[in-house]
Amino acid sequence: MNYKTDIKISDNGVMFALPDDQGKIVITNVFMSDDSEGTYISVKDGQVIAIQQKLHEKVVKDMGATQVVKIYPNWDLETAYVTRGLMNLAEENKLEIKKTRVKAIPENQRKTVADFIDMIVSLLSIFNISFSPNAQTEEEKAPVKAKPAKAQHRWNKDVAKIKFTVDFRGCQAEVYWQKRNEMLIKKGATMLAEAPKNKDGSVGFSERVGDQLRQEQEGNFKDFVTTTDIILKSVNEVGLFLYYAGTNSWLQLKDKDGKTIDDYTVVK
Predict the structure, then answer these.
(1) Which residues pair with residue 166 across a beta bridge?
(2) Both ends of the chain: CA-CA distance in Å?
(3) Is the CB of residue 173 less than 8 Å from the CB of residue 225?
(4) Among 67, 81, 133, 166, which is least packed by CB within 10 angstroms?
(5) 114 torsion bin: left (phi>0), alpha (psi -120 to 50), beta (else)
(6) For residue 59, with 0-12 CB atoms within 10 Å meaning exposed, 13-18 middle and 19 or more buried, which class applies?
(7) What are the phi and psi torsion angles at 220 (to 5°)?
């Protein structure tokens, strides 16, 4: 089944609207507690480890989660039914997870919920998030120490004046972080022509998002050289657009002395 969605990328993850106004999904590595009505899936290295109705920061970190998926269905589908449907799927697949108590799905809602769950699972598989127990080992089931929080960066007026350059995978570009949500790639930047494939030859998430960014800028580059200045929203988007990422782009953008954009903007 094919699904058409609109994806938005930020430094903290991705958000995409579900087809036919069925709601939205957020995939993030920021674990702030959230009491909003939704379904929350904790993920560790692509493996689902918890399905809950509330997001509690300490619980998620204690489980060693690397991502959280937030599912917000449209008003006409109760989040409790979505949570129950995903828990049922995990049980069918004999996946050992942390669960929550939610009410059963009424018979007249089962088909609607099943279709919604199928769509969610298909979309999350694109991001290598699995409801299959194949990757779950005894070591992964054991308690682990929480990973350190992802670095946060803060824009300022001084950094807006600095010219950063990119020289990675044969790509070269001049980049300015000119506004809080604006990264300027100067005309004449060279782009990676073809994205590296996964080891099994499949298309990775970075390639999918990079291609979408390039489609949005169609007409602004020729033969993989930009023909005009281009505005993107984040450092991560710059990396995906130019060289399909595959690296920490905060460490690839450097000033004339080799100081990275991370050095200038990381919050300590």
Answers:
(1) 173
(2) 45
(3) no
(4) 133
(5) alpha
(6) middle
(7) -100, 5
Q: Which helix (H) or strand (E) holds 26?
A: strand 23-28
Distance CA 143, CA 134 (A): 19
Q: What is the dihedral of CA 168, 11, 4, 125, to 10 degrees?
A: 80
- Strand-pair category, 230-232 with 182-185: antiparallel
Q: What gap in Å lies between CA 166 and CA 172, rounded to an integer?
A: 5
For residue 76, which of 45, 112, 43 has the smallest C-alpha distance?
112
Is 200 strand, coil or helix? coil
pLDDT tens, position by position, 219-267: 999 999 999 999 998 998 999 999 998 888 999 999 999 999 999 998 8
Q: What is the pLDDT of residue 263?
A: 94
Contact 118, 98 (CB under 8 A): no
